[in-house]
Specification:
By secondary structure, the chain is α+β, with helices and mostly antiparallel strands. The chain is 55% helix and 24% strand. Among the domains are: 101 residues, no CATH class; 78 residues; 196 residues, Beta Barrel (Porin). Strands 6-7-8-9-10-11-12-13 form an 8-stranded antiparallel beta barrel. Strands 1, 2, 3, 4 and 5 form a 5-stranded antiparallel beta sheet that branches. The chain starts with a helix and ends in a 5-residue tail after the last strand.
Length: 547
């Protein structure tokens, strides 16, 4: 309750008290002093009311502060209690999840073990059945083989001259014997029988051994030996008769052959000597010519290497140039060197690139992600929907290139539009020597300006740059850039092989540019222009110098 309200209540109370006192005034003993006591009572009442109001105000403020402190303490207690409960609940859920995962893992392990056991038992039973069937098959096969082997051994014994009963006994005795042993035994028996019969019939030891060896073979049938021995005896008699007749004329023939051989040998020796002398002379002449050729080629190679180095090529490339042009004429070698020097300065192989602008190594990388992180009872969501693009540009001219890598990110992050671009072109090539830049006349360079984001023919600006070689100044313009339609390249002075100046457009007034001269006689320009945060490549070719 405010002091104002307390005071008003006190006044009303005093007024009622005064009225009551006045109504009974006829009976009062103090009627003769109407102003003394009532005034003192009024002051006391006002003072008491004021003190009461102050106490009530202080009490009200104390209670309000006490209530606020209690509410704050209660809120902090509830927040702490909530955090403890949430932590306990998270730990309970984690423990419950771990227990479930453990139980599931144990169940799967038991199930796997049971399956593996059943599979092992099945495979063992299957293996036992197969082994039994295989054993039975092998036993039957063995019996059939033994029968066949007995018949084979019996046939071999009969061919060796055994009787049927002897052959039967031999087959059974050697059924499981070592083949080399019993075959060797049969062979020797047949050999001895045939050898003895052949010598007895009059054949020579050599013939007897040869025939006996033939019949000692495993499949040879000794029953045919007598017929072969008779045939050889008849053949021997005929050969001996023919040999006697041959020897009668052999001496004369031998003498003639010896004389002819000596003549041919002498003739051959003379021819071989003459041929050797001719070949030696021919080889010496070839070696001399080859040595002279290699010496001349070495001189030519060294000259080409020095020629290439004098044009600025490193030793490795100078060696390659010399090797590739060792057989070229001087004019062709010079033309090839000019191309190689230009390519070395440009850092590319010009034959692999078309003239003008080429885009390569281009790649796209879309990002579509959303994540939420929470802390202290609050959560934040991060959303990105962007496309990252990167690549390289190369503007090729005869004597120079303008190259640069670019990258960009466009899209939205947390609902806000994002556009980040980066492009830093640079010019390289056969720079015009400072003293080779023309010193008189005027010329216009025509070409293009380009950035990384409008690479098609419609996105390239048209560069026109005028140079007054006599005054050593240059200026120009770029038209038709999509987002910078009219760019002015302010006048700059030729310095250090190029021109630097300010660039401005209707959107950007504080840009800059730098072009450099390329080619033996400043046939080309190449460089960079900056407007705001954007960089552009500049490239142009000179027209005729007007004097």
């Amino acid at each position: 309750m405010s002091i104002k309200k307390v005071t008003l209540a006190s006044l009303i109370l005093l007024s009622l008290t005064a009225c009551s006192s006045g109504g009974s005034g006829g009976n009062s003993n103090n009627a003769t002093k109407p102003n003394a006591k009532p005034q003192t009572t009024q002051q006391q009442t006002d003072k008491a009311a004021a003190e009461k109001a102050a106490k009530e105000k202080a009490e009200t403020e104390r209670l309000a502060a006490e209530k606020a402190a209690k509410e704050k303490a209660e809120a902090e207690r509830l927040a702490a209690e909530k955090a403890v409960k949430e932590k306990a609940e998270a730990e309970r859920l984690a423990a419950e999840k771990a227990a479930k995962e453990k139980a599931e893992a144990e169940r799967l392990a038991a199930e796997k073990a049971a399956k593996e056991k059943a599979e092992a038992e099945r495979l063992a039973a299957e293996k036992a059945a197969k082994e039994k069937a295989e054993a039975e098959r092998l036993a039957a096969e063995k019996e059939a083989k033994e029968k066949t082997e007995i018949e084979r051994l019996k046939a071999l014994a009969i061919k060796a001259g055994y009787s049927d009963s002897e052959a039967e006994s031999f087959a059974k005795d050697n059924l499981n014997g070592e083949p080399n042993n019993y075959l060797s035994s049969l062979g020797w028996e047949k050999y001895n029988k045939v050898h003895k019969a052949a010598l007895k019939a009059g054949l020579s030891e050599e013939q007897a051994q040869q025939l006996a060896s033939e019949y000692s073979a495993v499949d040879a049938d000794i029953t045919n030996a007598d017929k072969d021995i008779s045939s050889l005896v008849t053949e021997k008699v005929a050969k001996e008769k023919a040999e006697a007749e041959r020897l009668a004329g052999a001496a004369e023939k031998a003498a003639k052959e010896k004389a002819e051989a000596e003549r041919l040998a002498a003739e051959k020796a003379a021819k071989e000597k003459a041929e050797a002398e001719r070949l030696a002379a021919e080889k010496a002449a070839k070696e001399k010519a080859e040595a002279e050729r290699l010496a001349a080629e070495k001189v030519r190679f060294d000259q080409l290497v020095e020629m290439a180095k004098s044009e600025g090529l490193p030793d490795s490339k100078a060696q390659i140039f010399a090797k590739n042009n060792i057989e070229s004429t001087s004019d062709i070698a010079k033309a090839n060197l000019d191309v190689m020097v230009i390519d070395n300065a440009k850092g590319i192989t010009s034959a692999n690139w078309q003239n003008g602008l080429t885009e390569y190594n281009k790649s796209f990388s879309p990002i579509n992600s959303s994540s939420t992180s929470c802390s202290n009872g609050g959560c934040t969501t991060y959303t990105e929907n962007t496309v990252n693009t990167s690549g390289s540009l190369l503007y090729n001219q005869k004597y120079s290139v303008v190259v640069g890598n670019y990258s960009s990110k466009t899209g939205t992050i947390n609902g806000g539009f994002v556009s980040e671009n980066s492009f830093n072109p640079r010019a390289k090539g056969l720079k015009t020597k400072v003293d080779a830049i023309p010193t008189e006349g005027k010329a216009t360079y025509l070409g293009h300006a380009f950035d990384a984001y409008h690479t098609g023919s419609e996105g390239q600006g048209k560069l026109s740059y005028n140079v007054d070689f006599g005054k050593r100044i240059g200026s120009g313009k770029v038209d038709s850039l999509r987002h910078e339609p009219n760019v002015v390249l302010a006048e700059g002075k030729i310095s250090k092989g190029g021109i630097s100046g300010k660039a401005s457009s209707s959107f950007d007034s504080d840009g800059s540019y730098r072009i450099e001269f390329f080619g033996p006689n400043a046939e080309e320009i190449g460089g960079k222009m900056t407007l705001g945060k954007d960089n552009y490549g500049l490239a142009g070719t000179r027209g005729e110098i007007q004097k």
